[in-house]
Amino acid sequence: MKIRPYSRIVVEGMDGAGKTTLVNQLVDHYGDSAHLVPGYNRIPDPKPEMPRWWMEQLSVNPHGRVTIHDRFFYPEFVYGPILRGHINAPGSTIEYVQKFLREHAFLIYCRPPVEVLKNGI
């Protein structure tokens, strides 16, 4: 397997798993070389249409900097059906974003410790 340097890091996971803490540590580690993209749930209203926002975020890649996403794409698969009863994106957009992330990003999945899951967050 070929190891590639990634210029994009996506941090995903459950609420309370430490995503933002890890993102802040990554931003501190990369310093001026980091470009932070807040999750869709953290952008101010009015929020743009989600698939359009995803595509805009994929085009953000400042030369020589590491783009770090505090959540990005995958929460829609969990929260979309719960909140709206469906995923808020056409299949072609989902396929494109998945392919892009698979080829150009390093995904970090965070989860809380088992004790937290057993006892509730």
List keywords for this structure.
globular, four-stranded parallel beta sheet, alpha/beta, single chain, 42% helix, 5 helices, 121 residues
Descriptive overview:
The chain is α/β, with parallel strands linked by helices. Helix content is 42%, strand content 17%. It has 5 helices and 4 strands, in the order βαβαβααβα. Strand 2, helix 2 (50-59) and strand 3 (66-70) form a beta-alpha-beta unit. Helix 2 runs parallel beside helix 4 (91-104). It is globular. The termini are far apart.
Distance between the termini: 38 Å
Give the low-confidence spans.
none
Number of helices: 5
Describe the biggest sheet? 4 strands, parallel
The mean pLDDT is: 84
Bin the helical content.
40-55%
Strand order of the largest sheet: 2-3-1-4
- Number of strand elements: 4
H and E order:
EHEHEHHEH
Global geometry: globular
